[in-house]
Amino acid sequence: MERFGTLSFGHYGPLGGGHQLTARDSMHQAIDLAQGMDELGADGIYFRVHHFARQQASPMPLLAAIAAKTQRIELGTGVIDMRYENPLYLAEEAAAVDLISDGRLALGVSRGSPESVVRGYEAFGYTGSTDPRGADIAREHFDTFLRAIDGEGLADRDPHSPFGGGMGRQAIEPQSPGLRSRVWWGAGNRDSAEWAGRMGVNLMSSTLLTEDRGLPFDELQAQQIDAFRAAWREAGHAGTPRTSVSRSIFPLTTAEDHMYFGGRQDGDQVGIIDGTRSTFGKTYAAEPDVLVEQLLDDAAIRTADTLMLTIPSQLGVEFNLRIVESFAKYVAPALGWTSKTATLSA
After folding, report:
1. For all residues of the chain together, what is the average pLDDT?
2. For residue 172, what are the β-bridge partners?
3. Are the CB atoms for 282 and 267 separated by under 8 Å?
4. Cα separation of 232 and 209, whole Å?
5. Could you report the per-residue pLDDT of 13-40, keeping only the tens digit for each?
6. How far is it, in rounded angstroms, from Cα 307 to Cα 273?
7. CB of 78 within 8 A of CB of 110?
8. Under DSSP, is residue 278 helix (H, G, I), strand (E, B) or coil?
9. What HEC string does 5-51 produce?
10. CA 28 vs CA 23, 31, 93: distances in Å
11. DSSP string of 165-202?
């Protein structure tokens, strides 16, 4: 494990006891959390994107705000649902955020996760899919997006335009050098992972795998990552692609930690999601020395270069920063991670 960060769903709404977390609260707390994590030396902060839900739905303004208030931390999505996206507008926004952040964007995209509405992308204007889950729309949008960030001309110039004119085809602007190398595909199964490898983008292995082959979740994920890397090599892409996995991991170091997460450790779960038999990973919650032993046995964590900690954003910035700091101090070094700052040296 070379890098670690947090993955937040950005939930907001009633908290119980008459308390309410608003959308404004959620976004401002995300910015505060990113600043705190940047100072602690964590490597990344990533956000899930869900439409028609009380969660983060428009990540680019949030990522731009975080980019302007941090110096080093990677910022990204895990993942944007391409069924809902205008690919050229997304290309413009992604390039702008990448430029503002000086190349710190990690743009995770995919077909999207199960929704709270029926074919919600059609309400956004994207119709005509022949796939029951809209995968064909997602792949078509992704192809156009990649062509756009690669600088391909996508619209005819107007030779009579008073704003420059010219002949030939015009690419979208702005362009951000190297953005293609910072694009990730969120894969829920082996076939999708191999496709990402052939496409030459990085891999975010999903918290939910849409397959069940009688293997533990971590082994399924590790095999998925191996298949992705093999497809990358066979396609002849240069360099080494990045891979990430996400886990619910809670170092229990205080009485409050034990109150919230003591006894929460569970095993893998298998169920039917979105009409597909699927496998969910376990939750890890234990004292740091126990966590180290457990995580060293996790096959996917051993092989991925980046680990995303799914965090309970409703519990606030201070609580989540303590989770991050405890993981960075007491667990991450034993997994191979090295702090990039002096903040955690004590």
Report:
1. 91
2. none
3. yes
4. 20
5. 998 888 899 999 999 999 999 999 999 9
6. 24
7. no
8. strand
9. EEEECCCCEEEECCEEECHHHHHHHHHHHHHHHHHHCCCEEEECCCC
10. 9, 5, 20
11. --SSEE--S---TTGGGGEEEEESSHHHHHHHHHHT-E
